Amino acid sequence: MDEQTWNDVDRYIGDHLGVSDAVLDHTLSSSRAGGLPEIAVSPPQGKLLMLLASSIGARRVLEIGTLGGYSTIWLARALPSDGQLVTCEYSSEHALVARQNLDGAGVGNLVDIRIGAAIDTLPTLTAPFDFTFVDADKESNADYFRWAVQLSRPGSLIVIDNTVRGGAVTDPTATDPATQGTRALYEAVRDEPRVSATAIQTVGSKGYDGFLLARVLDV
Ligand code: SAH
Ligand code: DHB
Ligand code: MG
Description:
Number of domains: 1
Distance between the termini: 43 Å
CATH architecture: 3-Layer(aba) Sandwich
CATH superfamily: Vaccinia Virus protein VP39
Low-confidence stretches: none
Strand order of the largest sheet: 3-2-1-4-5-7-6
Structural class: alpha/beta
CATH class: Alpha Beta
Strand content: 15-25%
CATH topology: Rossmann fold
Radius of gyration: 16 Å
Number of helices: 8
Shape: globular
Bound molecules: S-adenosyl-L-homocysteine, 3,4-dihydroxybenzoic acid, magnesium ion
Order of helices and strands: HHHEHEHEHEHEHEE
């Protein structure tokens, strides 16, 4: 199987199951026009985030890594009208694009974009969050995971993107900071008794990667 097949199947999934609409498409095109990197979650992945957050009845969502607000819109759509989403973004340029997209999507009133390094923002946030999506600088993923646990309640879900990286995670010659950060994440999850976790390998329009899912336990 090659990337052409993965793209075709993602398109097939979208054609049948409804993983895009004009608002979401506009978010991607305005992000591209604004010069943002094209690294948002794929449409099927975005819908998975919405389904996971809505399945646990999430009312407060935390996101680390906003970019142009594509995953943010999916997550905000899982929320009730009095829900809240806090999303952390380092780049004020990305945050500006995201703000326009979120307002255009009709969910801007639910979303608080915190500009700055997430590691500085996280200690200022009030717990608990029901759902956390981590998708920023991979070097910091172990720290973000520990913060996500700290900001959770029993039953909260934590989803972390890009935890396979084309298989680099097990390639001994891959020593780049993002891969080292990914390995540090798995060690942090292994060493955290307050979660039950798995990771799933994925293929699709974003290539071969995966995500890690952790449920915070009643301890
Ligand atoms: N979740 C988005 C994609 C996020 S891309 C989506 O799927 O639509 C990663 C984002 O993390 C980028 O916008 C980048 O600027 C931001 N980022 C990188 N380092 C960061 C940091 N230290 N703190 C907060 N955000 C950071
Ligand atoms: C990159 C970051 C992501 O979050 C992603 O899903 C894909 C790629 C990157 O930095 O290249
Ligand atoms: Mg990602």
